[in-house]
Amino acid sequence: LIAPEPMTAPVARLVAEAHTIETAAGILAAVAGEDATAEECGLKPADLQRAGRLRERLEMLSIASERDGSAPTLAEIAADCGVSVSTMQRLFRAAYGTSIAGWLRGRRLDHAHADIAAGRCSIAEAAFHAGYGDVANFTTAFRRRFGVTPGRLARQA
């Protein structure tokens, strides 16, 4: 066997960067709803399908909890999907590039953004509905996600 020549530091960095970009592209494709392959997410095909089912179930449970005010625990969601909490969290993060809590927080912020932009509620009400007890914390999270404060968005609406 012929051993490959060792890579120089710049080439090794380039190879590592290419791998990182490829992985990120797979995760972004999964988040965007495109058909990412299991390899792109670093999952087995069955695990990628399971992650998709988990997200669908999480979406349904989230919608139901918004209607009646109950919020299922991660243990309840995992049990409902037939996996452990740790497996559910691992699959979700691998497939979607974010934690379940981060995804839920983003979803609530998206709803708050839509409500504020449409003038359906005040910033304090949006913060409360998004699960924030402190408007300042809500404003910080909102600005990080959308690049604009809720007050500025409300003034633009």
Automatic annotation (TrEMBL):
This is AraC family transcriptional regulator. PROSITE patterns: HTH_ARAC_FAMILY_1, HTH_ARAC_FAMILY_2. SUPFAM superfamilies: Homeodomain-like (SSF46689). InterPro entries: Homeodomain-like_sf (IPR009057), HTH_AraC (IPR018060), HTH_AraC-typ_CS (IPR018062), PchR_regulatory_protein (IPR053142), Tscrpt_reg_AraC-type_HTH (IPR020449). GO terms for molecular function: DNA-binding transcription factor activity; sequence-specific DNA binding. Keywords: DNA-binding, Transcription, Transcription regulation. It comes from the Bacteria. Residues 55-156 form the HTH araC/xylS-type domain. It holds the Pfam family HTH_18.
